[in-house]
Specification:
Helices cover 37% and strands 23% of the residues. By secondary structure, it is α/β, with parallel strands linked by helices.
Length: 314
């Protein structure tokens, strides 16, 4: 049984006249009659009968017509779904992100994408930069929102040590994050000090790293973000001190809560989480520190149409 036979049967059933049905189908009457005969042979039943010179459906034909409509509808839906998937309008986008992306970049990117492609399923989870890089190489995720290992100006030019970059004609800077991967910076974010609201430096608009040398610190746990941990420690060492880390946490919201409780100060990548200004304040650093790029990364070997649509919007 073929779909063209089903379509021919449905049109004949609607017209109950082979001549009119053949005109609708742009077929000759003999060709249409052969299709119906072949369908009846395949089914082993008569679908039509002549009663008093009228062409009518048999009981088997009536039953088969309802199912034929359903089969054709499902067939058309399958075709449309395949076409929409090819256009990147259906399917799943597997995206992983570092925690510091959740306060501004992630909502902005996902909001734009969701508006354009509302039926795409978003598979989202936090993941460190290192693990994102491995997952992108292995094809386990489609796109990553991550922090390169060292801060650099937006555009990632200083980060091109991993393999050089390209500059497309539209001015977008695409750089190699790691062998086999490409990335594009979407923001450059400064480091800020998080202080308890009653801290001695809380009334200042800006503070120097060296002024925090004797303070207890609440820090990211190194396993949750080794690049962030090592880079921030490196900034402190460059300012002349090793931070005295008394509390660690795996997520930024917990760090802020511990700072609010007076357990120490911290250094966070902005944008920072919303918090009660009577408990925690954020202050700019006067040190000449480079901003920290946030980049979208992907594998050029990934041929997912949905990834292509995401990168177009990016």
């Amino acid at each position: 049984m073929e779909l063209r036979q089903l379509r021919s049967f449905v049109v004949v059933a609607e017209e109950l006249n082979v001549g009119r049905a053949a005109l609708r189908l742009h077929l000759t009457q003999p060709s249409l009659s052969r299709q119906i005969a072949a369908l009846e042979h395949d089914l082993g039943v008569e679908l039509f009968a002549r009663i008093r010179r009228r062409f009518v459906l048999t009981a088997a034909g009536e039953t088969f017509l309802a199912d034929a409509h359903d089969l054709l509808r499902r067939s058309d839906e399958a075709v449309r779904a395949a076409q929409r998937t090819q256009r990147g309008e259906l399917g799943t986008l597997r995206l992983r992100f570092v925690q510091s992306a959740t306060h501004e970049a992630l909502p902005r990117l996902l909001g734009t994408f969701r508006e354009a492609y509302p039926e795409v399923v978003l598979d989202l989870a936090t993941m460190t930069t290192l693990h994102q890089t491995e997952a992108l190489r292995d094809g386990r995720i489609d796109v990553g929102l991550l922090r390169p290992n060292a801060p650099a100006p937006v555009g990632g030019r200083a980060g091109s040590r991993g393999g050089g970059g390209d500059a497309p004609g539209d001015g977008t800077v695409v750089v190699r994050l790691a062998p086999g991967l490409e990335s594009q910076a979407v923001s450059a974010d400064p480091l800020v000090a998080a202080l308890p609201a009653r801290h001695r430096l809380a009334r200042r608009k800006r503070v120097r790293l060296a002024e925090l040398a004797d303070e207890p610190f609440v820090f990211y746990s190194r396993p949750s973000g080794p690049a962030v941990y090592d880079t921030i420690v490196g900034f402190c060492l460059a300012a002349g001190f090793m931070p005295r880390i008394e509390q660690e946490a795996a997520d930024v919201q917990t760090i802020v809560s511990l700072v609010a409780a007076g357990l120490g100060v911290s250094l966070l990548i902005s944008p920072t989480p919303l918090s009660n200004p009577e408990a925690v304040v954020y202050r700019e650093l006067s040190d000449d520190l480079p901003p920290w790029p946030l980049s979208v990364a992907w594998s050029p070997d990934n041929r997912s149409p949905i990834l292509a649509r995401f990168l177009e919007l990016l």
